[in-house]
Write a structure and sequence with these properties.
The complex is a heterodimer of chains A (about 250) and B (about 160).
Chain A lengths: L2 H23 L8 H29 L3 H6 L10 H4 L5 H22 L5 H29 L3 H18 L9 H6 L6 H18 L20 H16 L7
Chain B lengths: L5 H8 L18 E7 L2 E6 L9 H14 L4 E6 L12 H9 L2 E2 L26 E5 L7 E6 L4 E6 L3
Parallel strand pairs in B: 2-3, 4-7
Antiparallel strand pairs in B: 1-2, 5-6, 6-7
The chains are: A mainly alpha (about 250), B alpha/beta (about 160).
Chain lengths: ~250, ~160
């Protein structure tokens, strides 16, 4: 096993958390009710905290500062799935995306805790209990909105129709990921996908939603991004790039 | 360097208030995990409560500042993740202080948070369990918001982790 396949995987994990966290943070001051404003700010901060743990591990391998990775990389060098970079949409869209991601994490993390790499195992063990709070929150809301009013149901179904094929990208193995699976560093994403599908299909159906038939991810490469990531980064990186040497307050 | 005993160092660390809950110390919260003295250096191991806690850097700086003020020339703060921080580690003394601060202390869960999502949290003001959760997320990552139907007051709970 080369370290290269491992560092690419760690970067993918970190970037997914960062970009999803950033999208969640866009709800601050804009959520439909105050409680959800607070909830999304918490979800955002949690995901940033988790990104930080993965970036710290990436730094141990590559000696690259997390601040550099976050603020001075262009879109082409980001390794997140397109799923997390899509604009926040309406609140149903953001809630459903977070639910699909939380379920994926709730299945992946218990496997990562068993990783043969001790650092990966301990980071997963740290993240796992925090994520239980996320999944409880988002799974309840998916049900409430799916079975709620005609409008909440329509918005959830639209969100699901749009997000489904993007979500499947979370389970597309990276080019050398098989090495990591063989070395028991990473779980097999196909196994995770089977478990994820069985859980989300059951919950979405119970929430009155129809799961799209496709099982083909809309994107398969993490080097390709939508135009939305460029816009996201332009905003997120503006201050850091404007004041490269920092400002003393 | 001034000759310091472990007790002096632990006592000093126990004086550092949690930046978000100033009635309790970093030691009582179980955030300071270990202290080692190596020649002229003191190595403190600390662990984050919630991974994204924005007060963490402030806590780290406070540890360095406190020990420097004691005369320690070299302070090294190591961040450890194993075992992950548990709210079970919050000292008994700190639980009472959390309550006096208006924060319901987290229930002991023995490492199994998964099954422990109680909705009957006792109000820190009147002790009634006639309470309801308003929001599982609160003003900091570690707090949830509740309302007491008995004394008609909102309060917060330190979340079990």
């Amino acid at each position: 096993m080369t370290n290269l396949s491992l560092v690419f995987k760690i970067l993918a994990l970190a970037d997914d958390e960062l970009i999803l966290g950033h999208r969640n943070s866009e709800w601050a001051g804009h959520a439909p009710i105050l409680e959800e404003d607070i909830a999304f700010a918490n979800l955002a901060l949690d995901e940033l905290g988790h990104a930080q743990l993965w970036y710290a591990l990436y730094q141990e391998f590559t000696d690259t500062e997390p601040d550099y990775l976050v603020f001075f990389r262009g879109a082409a060098d980001y390794r997140n799935a397109q799923f997390v970079e899509l604009p926040k949409g309406d609140w149903a869209f953001s809630m459903l995306r977070q639910y699909l991601f939380d379920t994926y994490e709730s299945i992946a993390l218990p496997q990562l805790v068993k990783s043969s790499n001790a650092r990966i195992a301990e980071i997963a063990a740290k993240i796992r209990p925090e994520e239980m709070y996320h999944l409880r929150h988002t799974s309840n809301w998916v049900k409430r909105l799916g079975l709620g009013t005609a409008e909440s149901h329509r918005r959830m179904q639209n969100a699901l129709d749009e997000l489904w094929a993007y979500a499947l990208q979370l389970f597309v193995p990276l080019s050398d990921e098989q090495e990591l699976i063989d070395a028991k560093v990473m779980p097999d994403p196909r196994v995770l996908q089977a478990e994820w599908e069985s859980q989300v299909v059951a919950h979405l159906s119970a929430s009155g939603l129809i799961v799209p038939a496709t099982r083909e991810p809309i994107a398969t490469s993490r080097t390709q991004h939508t135009e939305y990531l460029t816009a996201l980064l332009a905003e997120m990186q503006e201050v850091a790039r404007g004041e490269v040497y920092g400002v003393e307050w | 360097m001034v000759k310091l005993a472990f007790d002096d160092i632990w006592r000093a660390l126990d004086e550092i208030a949690d930046p978000e809950i100033p009635v309790v110390s970093l030691v009582e919260m179980g955030i300071v995990r270990d202290v080692q003295i190596q020649n002229d250096a003191v190595i403190v191991s600390m662990t984050p409560t919630f991974a994204g806690c924005p007060a963490f850097e402030q806590m780290r700086a406070a540890i360095v500042e406190k020990l420097r003020a004691l005369g320690v020339e070299r302070v090294e703060v190591k961040i450890v993740l194993t075992p992950p921080w548990s709210s079970d580690w919050i000292a008994e003394s700190a639980r009472a202080k959390l309550k006096s601060f208006g924060l319901a202390p987290p229930p002991q869960h023995g490492g199994n948070v998964q099954l422990f999502f109680p909705d009957a949290v006792a109000c820190p003001y009147c002790n009634s369990t006639n309470t309801r959760v308003t929001n599982h997320f609160g003003p900091t990552l570690c707090r949830a918001i509740y309302f007491c139907r008995n004394c008609q007051q909102p309060f917060e709970q330190f979340k079990p982790l």
